[in-house]
Amino acid sequence: MKNIIFILLILLFPLFAQELQNTEKVEQEKPIELERKDDSTLIEIKDTSGLSQEEVREAVKKEEQKNVSIFQAPWEDLSPQAKAYDWIQTKKGEWFKGEIKAMYNNKLEFDSKEMGLYTFDFKDISQIKSFYVIGVNIEDVAEFSGIIRFKNDEITIIQGDKKFTFTRTEIIAFAPEGSKEFNYWSGKISFNLDIRTGNKEQYDYIASINLKRRTSSSNLYFDYLGRISSKDNETTANDHRINQKYDRYITRNFFWTPLFSEFYRDEFQNIKNQFTAGAGIGYTLVNNDRAEWDVSGGPAYTRIEYISVQKGEKITTSPALEISTKANIELNTKVDFKFNYKLTYSDEKSGTYKHHMISTLENELTSWLDLDFSLIWDYLLRPEKTEAGIIPAKSDFQFLVGLGVEF
Fold first, then answer.
1. What residues contact 235, with CB distance under 8 A and at least 6 apart?
2. What is the dihedral of CA 390, 394, 399, 405, to 10 degrees?
3. Strand 202-214 relative to strand 154-158, pairing
4. Tens digits of residue pLDDT in 222-236
5. What span, in angstroms and rounded, lies between the C-alpha atoms of 404 and 369?
6. Measured at the alpha carbon of residue 99, what is the angle toward residues 95 and 104, in degrees to the nearest 5?
7. 367 torsion bin: left (phi>0), alpha (psi -120 to 50), beta (else)
8. Residue of 266, 188, 176 whose CA lies nearest to 223
9. 3-state secondary structure of 315
C-alpha cells in the first residue's frame, strides 16, 4: 500500500507542478499590483483606486446613462439600473432581480424573491448587471474583484479606475465578495420519516443534508447521511456518515484538494467510530450544458474503533488511498441524475477495500422543492468479526423516497 501511494504521488506531481506554473498575463489600461497569498492560490487583482463601492457604482451609472439615451435607443436596448439588487437577463429577453449566488460549471445560481433560489444554464444568460462586488476567476490569468457587466458574450470587471474585459469562454467561475457569509452558502435538506403504531411499534428516520460554500476559486462541501430505525422498541439500524471536501480550482478543469475527510459510525457494521482524512488532486472530465463529471483522489489516513473484537486491538490505523467521482446529468428540464462514488483502499486490518455509492433521481416539483429517489450501496470487503463471533454482512443497501428542500 505504501509503495502504491508513493508511486501515485511521483506520477501526479509533474502535472500538479506544471499547472501551478501558468503565466499570468492581463491586458489592462493601467499598471496593476499583483499579490499572491501563497503558492497554491491564484493571483488576485484588487481595486487600488481608493474609491468606495458606492462611488464606483455611481461612476458606472453615469457611464451607462451617457452611452444609452432613452430617447434614441430601441426599447430592447434599455435595461434596469442595478440599485440594491443584481439583475440578469435571459436570451428570451426576461429580466430577473435578486442576488447572484455563484456561477460554477456553467450553472448560474440566482436568488430571487419571486422565484426563490433558481439555477440557470449560463449559456441562456445574455446580460448581467451586478450591484454587489463579484469575484471572477479567469482561466490562466487571475482572480478579479469588482462590479461586473456581462453582454454580447463578454464580461467586464469594473474597479475604481480600471476595467478588464474577457470572453465568456475564459470564465471559470464567479461569486459575490465582501457580502454576508450566508450569501456564500447554498444547500439541500432531504427528510424521510415513517412511523407505525398498533400491532407493531415501528419508526424509520432518514435524513440527508448537503451544504456547499462557493467562491470564485474554491468549493467547500459538507454532506450528512443518517438513519435510525426501531421496531418494537428494539433498534434495527443506527448509522451516520459525515463527509467534508475542500477544492481549489487552478484551471477550468484541474483542481487540488488540501483536505478531505469522513466520519462514519454504524452499530450493525461493528464500527463505533471511523475517521478518514487526506489530500489529493482532481480533474473535470466533462463540463457542458447537460453533464458534469469529475474524478479526484489522493493518499489518506484511516482510523477505526470497533465496538467489539474477537481478538486483537479494538482500534486500528492504516495508510490509505481514496478515489472518488461525481457526476450530474440533466435528463430534462425537470429531472436530474446524480451519482457519487467513493472507494478506499487500506490494509487488511482496516477492511482492505470499501466503497460508498449514492445515485439519485431529482424530480423538480417547484424551484425549491424536489421529489428524490435514491439508491445507496455501502460495501466492506473484510468486516471485523464481533466478540460473539458474528460477521457483519459485506453490503448494505438502502432505497429512499423523500422530499428535498433547496436553499
1. 228, 229, 267
2. 100
3. unpaired
4. 999 999 998 888 888
5. 6
6. 95
7. alpha
8. 188
9. strand
Give CA–CA dist 252/106, Å, rounded.
11
Set of cell numbers at residue 400? 429512499
User: What tens digit of pLDDT does each residue of 96-123 get?
Assistant: 999 998 898 788 989 887 777 888 889 9
What distance, in Å, lies between the first and last C-alpha atoms of the chain?
42
Ramachandran bin of 386, using left for φ above 0, alpha for ψ from -120 to 50, beta for the remaining angles: beta
Nearest to 102 by CA among 79, 139, 128: 128
Number of Cβ within 10 Å of residue 347's Cβ equals 16
> Cα–chain-centroid distance for residue 230?
34
Query: Cβ–Cβ contacts within 10 Å for residue 4, how many?
Result: 12
Whether residue 195 contacts residue 220, with contact meaning beta carbons closer than 8 Å, is answered with no
Handedness of CA 364, 365, 369, 370 (dihedral sign): negative
346 exposure class (CB count in 10 Å sphere: 0-12, 13-18, 19+):
buried
- ∠ CA 319-322-325, nearest 5°, is 175
Q: Do 249 and 40 touch, CB atoms closer than 8 A?
A: no
* Burial status of residue 155 (CB atoms within 10 A of its CB: 0-12, 13-18, 19 or more): buried
Tell how far CA 21 is from the center of its chain. Answer: 25
> Which residue, 262, 245, 265, is CA-closest to 305?
265
Rounded-to-integer distance, Cα 220 and Cα 243, Å: 11
Helix or strand (DSSP H, E) at 172: strand 171-176
DSSP-derived 3-state class of residue 173: strand
- Integer Cα distance of 159 and 282 in angstroms: 33
Angle at 346 between CA 343 and CA 350, to 5 degrees: 105
Does residue 209 sit in helix, strand or coil?
strand
Residue 51 predicted with pLDDT over 60: yes
In one-letter notation, the amino acid at residue 56 is V
Cα 44 from Cα 388, distance rounded (Å): 60
DSSP class of 233:
T
Separation between Cα atoms, residue 91 and residue 108, nearest integer Å: 14
| pLDDT of the residue at 282 | 95
